[in-house]
Amino acid sequence: MKNNIIKEYGLVHDNIIISYMVDFEKQILQINTKSYDEEVVIRFQGLLAHVFENVLLNNIILEIYQVTIECFLLEKVNRISEVLKYGFPTIEVSNIKELEDYLKEKEYRVFYLTASLWMCGYIIAKEIILM
């Protein structure tokens, strides 16, 4: 996996996740965090889909990093193949190859998030902004 990391967002390492919200109409996922001395908003714009697991109180961000689309699809091939049948992450494709082409053509990026207490997940969006 480490060879397929495009960029790491270390500025939010050790930030506490205060809240997150999804605005499907505006295609935004926003994570509100707090470090020891400031609040940082992590905004994913052009949101296509996201999956978070094990969401608990007091999660502290360990890493947010962008990976290649190929790496993401290879790692998640079984799960993505299954959920494609139900329109996730987009109803415009029907197999992994079409999804790969779609994500590249539409300029989507894949971001992984890991946190303490086992929270983890990924976000498929066009950009990330730290505010």
Automatic annotation (TrEMBL):
The chain crosses the membrane at residues 110-129. Keywords: Membrane, Transmembrane, Transmembrane helix. The keyword Transmembrane helix applies. This is Uncharacterized protein.
